């Protein structure tokens, strides 16, 4: 028989915990949870920042690609940055991508460019706090409001800090190989014309390059969008009838220099 005559008030028994002990354990657990809560919040914020930056980098890649890998994103195909971020994944109202046979260059929408990002129910790209990204048309830069969900504060996330150029320059050095057997010489604007094709909202355009003034020299074009461009040289003057030259040139940031040679007929 168990002797219960010595049990005291507030006791659960020899093998249990007293009420005071239970209260003490609860108090200690509350302190531990309270101490860990800020750390847990910091970890959660850190993960959201990392996730948001990853999405922003993917969107930046969709805008202008990675020229060092010969990928120029939306800009390379359409010729301009999109009016909204969401346009990188929307073909609506845009010419379909097609390769022009003579140019051997494609023009038109060839997306989706941010194929692994999903629009929020609001049909917007949002950060990890469910706030739509801020993007200014014509500027290759994306901003998140950050943890406080308010734009213009110190915790805003901006990628990249300095917007990269989405245009470059082209210089063409055009030589002529005389039919006399003499070495090739630089041509003047009275002996040839040079043209470059480019994309304007997905439609092919062609413009003459600025030729040398008053003598031999290079032809040039400034502000061509990043990506592939068709260049052609056509003989005039004493080079009329020369076989037309065609080339495909990759325009990067800065200046791209190429040399072409016309053979005098």
Global mean pLDDT: 90
**Proportion of residues in helical segments:** 10-25%
CATH class division of the largest domain:
Mainly Beta
- The H/E string reads HHEEEEEEEEEEEEE
CATH superfamily of the largest domain: Immunoglobulins
Count all strands and give the number: 13
C-alpha end-to-end distance: 125 Å
Low-confidence stretches: 1-7
* Helix and strand composition category: alpha+beta
Q: Which CATH architecture of the largest domain is right?
A: Sandwich
Key attributes of the depicted protein:
265 residues; alpha+beta; Glycoprotein, Type 4 Pilin; Immunoglobulin-like; 2 domains; four-stranded mixed beta sheet; four-stranded antiparallel beta sheet; 2 helices; 13 strands; 28% strand; elongated
Write a concise synopsis of the structure shown.
By secondary structure, the chain is an alpha+beta fold. Helix content is 20%, strand content 28%.
Overview of this protein structure:
With 265 residues, this protein is an alpha+beta fold. It has two domains: 43-72 and 82-90 and 110-159, Glycoprotein, Type 4 Pilin (2-Layer Sandwich); 167-263, Immunoglobulins (Immunoglobulin-like). The chain contains two helices and 13 strands. It has helices spanning 19-64, 73-78, and strands at 98-100, 105-107, 134-135, 142-144, 157-159, 167-177, 185-186, 192-200, 203-208, 219-225, 227-235, 245-251, 254-263. The strands form four sheets. Strands 6, 7, 10 and 13 form a four-stranded mixed β-sheet that branches. A four-stranded antiparallel β-sheet has the order 9-8-11-12. A three-stranded antiparallel β-sheet has the order 3-4-5, with helices on one face. Strand 1 (98-100) and strand 2 form a beta hairpin. The protein is elongated. The chain starts with 18 loop residues before the first helix and ends with a strand.
